[in-house]
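Next comes this protein.

***
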Amino acid sequence: MAMPHANLLASPRSFAHPAVVSAGRWREGLTVRTPHQPDSANRPIGRGFVTKTVLPDTVRKAQRERPQRVASEGVAMSEKYVKDQEAIARLTPHQYSVTQESATEPAFRNEFWDHHEAGLYVDIVSGEPLFTSTKKFDSACGWPSFTAPVNAENVVEHKDRTFGMTRIEVRSSNGDSHLGHVFDDGPKDEGGLRYCINSAALRFISYNELDTSGYGDYKHLFDNAIPKEEESQ
């Protein structure tokens, strides 16, 4: 009898990191490999392949009412970083599928999973700061992984029960972009969380470009992490 997922065996990485359950949270990798996804069972996994998630109406239509946070320039955070049609129009089909349709990109075949440059990761739609390279670590899952966001208020969490499992979805506060999921199997000495994020939801701004890109106020987050010679460039 043919194996239902025989095509996955061709990749040496497919089962290098078996799925684990930790306190009710599942590894992000299951969004591509799990047999609970009937629509992906007969499709090849390759570059650009994404797995779409249909969110409940209560999540998709939720109105997130929260106090306005004020950026250092005196501009309300919700006014400075917004989701608009121009930003949506600039997205590639892949970025749109991930951020607007809650798709998941393939492990080890995305832009930032093995990216080590110092800098800031912002929402591809709104530009709101999300994560820094100082909180990025190698989780061996094939997606960019972080121990904590720049500001906890820049991300919101929703319970995701798609594909027969319960996970915690992470979305950007102002851009309302689907970012990925958060799990409790991260480094214990840094809080124990692992924010498993889709590269397609992120835009990277290198440390040396923070000032010219309008994110100079976040340079202090890299104190003691940037060599003096690089900082002076």
